[in-house]
Amino acid sequence: MSSTNQHMQNCSTTNNQSITGKQYVRQSQMRIVMHHLRKNKGAMVGLFIILAIVFVAIFADVIFDYDKDVVGIDISRKLLRPSWEHPFGTDDLGRDILSRILYGSRFSVSVGVVATLIGLGIGVIFGAIAGYYCGIAEDIIMRINDVVSAVPSILMGIVIVSALGATTFNLMLAIGITSVPQFVRITRASVLTVRNQEYIEALHATGISEFRIIAFHVLPNCLSPIIVQATLRIASAIIAASSLSFLGLGVPAPAPEWGSMLSLGRQYVRTASYLTIFPGLAILITVLAFNLLGDGLRDAIDPKLKK
Amino acid sequence: MLRYAIKRILLMIPVIIGVSFLIFFIMDLAPGDIVDIKLAEEALTFEEIEQLRETYGLNGSVFTRYFSYMVNFVQGDLGTSLVSGRPVLDSYLEKMPATIVLACASIFVSIMISIPLGVYAAMKRGTFADNASMVFSFLGLSIPNFWLGLMLIIVVALNVPGIPTGGFSKGIASVILPAITVGTGLTATLARTTRSSMLDVLSQDYLRTERAKGHKEIKVIMKYALRNALIPIITIAGGQFAVTLGGAVLTETVFSWPGVGRLIVDAVNSRDVPMAVGCIILKSITIGIVVLIVDLLYAVIDPRIKAQYGKRKRKQA
Known about the structure:
The complex is a heterodimer.
Chain A lengths: L1 H10 L1 E5 L6 E5 H11 L1 H18 L1 H4 L2 H5 L26 H37 L1 H16 L2 H12 L3 H28 L2 H9 L3 H9 L4 H24 L11 H10 L6 H28 L6
Antiparallel strand pairs in A: 1-2
Helix pairs in contact in A: 2-14, 3-6, 3-14, 6-7, 6-9, 6-12, 6-14, 7-9, 8-9, 9-12, 12-13, 12-14, 13-14
Chain B lengths: L1 H28 L4 H8 L4 H10 L6 H13 L13 H36 L4 H15 L2 H13 L14 H31 L2 H8 L4 H29 L3 H6 L5 H10 L3 H29 L1 H14 L1
Helix pairs in contact in B: 1-13, 5-6, 5-8, 5-10, 6-8, 7-8, 8-10, 10-13, 12-13, 13-14
């Protein structure tokens, strides 16, 4: 067993030996990918922005007093234009837009990430079963997949959230479910390429369970395209979450979700356009960052795709 | 080719059955129905409630109701709206012209921008122009289109006379902003696909031969390179057109566009199950048919694919 693992590790590493034979540098796949990624300026910018947003999201409670700064109503300062005191202005209830946008990163990013993890979890399990077992299991899973993907994702999201109720968790669940078909397809395709390799045959011969083979030996070798898809999917999940919130089907008020802030801003589009401009910019920058990182990761993992 | 088309249409049947059941089942999970909504508006007696439930066909299990819905569906009856009382098919067809106009206009905007952009980026690979066009396409991918719509309203509609902020009453002027809104998102993907596909073709030997014959570069690119790069471009453009034809929900909401997308959202919000299920089925059928037409278009563009259809036919004979 341990020797098989050792064999696999050797397969996934590139060993560089200098001409003198004295230096022995072992480069793991991860290190090679990171090396390519570091050279990609766009991806690095994306990563930096994501880290900054995640930092703000984590420490939002420390930076702001939720009850006072984020949801506290003060009619005396309603609809103030951007100024030094309120750089992004205030909304119709006198709440500071900058505080709400920064605090809102917590909602938008967490919905994007958790929804993607839900889609990834379900999609990878079913994709792995379809790809590994083939036959009737594959037929059933792929036909169900066809059905789910035949309904445009925004509509599926609307139907699920309106059926289950507009809560943050239901929003995550709805967006997660709409992303399942993509993960099923990608995982299945990757598993199909791995399942017939010799080391899997060798593992069968050792007599270990098929669950262990899939979980510990097949899936780890299929991770690259799944990681790329997940990163890109977080970007589209953030847009989907804000779209549903914009339609009134997302994070319930008074939580400062960017889509619901835009929905409010729409009512004041003629008189207070800043209510619309800044939350939208927040979505744009966050989505752009995830797209840049995802694109960079794809190029780093498979440089052949870099065109 | 006809056999292939028939086979594809037959394969759509189980998908449509699955989609209809899925939507029917999910909407059944919703707490409350149209009778509860009516109950909130006016006081009803127990008998009246029961009568309404019977009239709307809300009694019985979800499977019984789904079965009777599908029996009617097969006979061409998609039911009537629980809210307006109008046949679902009539309401859908009434909204289709606006949706078709928006879909055609947005795909036109998208093609007019993305193909020249993608071709130019591929020809100038690695230059500033290439990078700039790809940055543009990245931005297009990342902009939430409902926000872009609102920005266009703020920047254009509120400042340029004659461009309305919404509705479909002012003819071509009404279509400009919604078409740019939907088209920008499509442009991003299509420009990247065009660039990638052109890069594949530009490295082929036959283009060198064409250049050696003394053809002008523009002719080499437009006549020989672009035509061979068209298949992936048409696949993406066709898919996008199909989805837009099913209703651009958010853009239609932002611009108060009287299309299919808004019809579906309103139906879902008011628990109008027959309208929601019927529209989503019709939308799935529309998408399936457009994608099929796109697949068949391959044969028109690429004679090799047409030859393959012919070969299969000869083999069968």
